[in-house]
Design brief:
Elements: E1 16-21, E2 27-37, H1 44-54, H2 64-76, E3 80-81, E4 87-88, H3 94-114, H4 117-120, E5 126-133
Antiparallel strand pairs: 1-2, 2-5, 3-4
């Protein structure tokens, strides 16, 4: 499978990938991909979106402020009821916070990079950002 090193453990090729090494020798993996609806893959909007996402150096992306914001939001959130009826606060590991921060920053850079063309998108003719992560709890 051709993928310029962006193959995921789930069998698809991402537009960008990020991995966090864990102390137990495993890695938390995140694959980020541009999705589109009502457009062809060679549409300039799709191609530009993929170039923006693929061009971000995730290893050097400064996530500190976004991580701080996520932690503050978690601390201020109300406890939630889970399917088993237990009511607990939402908790995220440091790796999960990092992954969430990366996804949010990539999304912000994508929308900023697309500029005014974001306003031209409409349901059924749009690009979106999706990511899949391994369990990093």
């Amino acid at each position: 499978m051709a993928g310029a090193g962006n193959e995921t453990p789930w069998g698809w090729v991402a537009d960008n990938v990020f991995s966090i090494e864990r102390t137990n020798g495993s890695a938390c993996f995140q694959g980020i991909v541009v999705r589109w609806e009502g457009l062809s893959e060679d549409d300039p909007l799709v191609q530009d979106a993929k170039a923006i996402v693929g061009g971000i150096d995730l290893a050097t992306l400064d996530t500190s402020a976004k991580e701080e914001q996520i932690r503050a939001d978690l601390a201020a959130s109300e406890p939630v009821e889970h399917l088993d009826g237990e009511i607990t606060s939402i908790e995220m590991s440091d790796a999960e916070v990092k992954q969430q921060a990366i996804h949010q920053l990539v999304a912000e850079q994508l929308w900023a990079g697309l500029g005014d063309r974001v306003n031209e998108m409409q349901p059924g003719r749009e690009v979106s950002l999706s990511s899949q992560t391994s369990d990093c709890s």
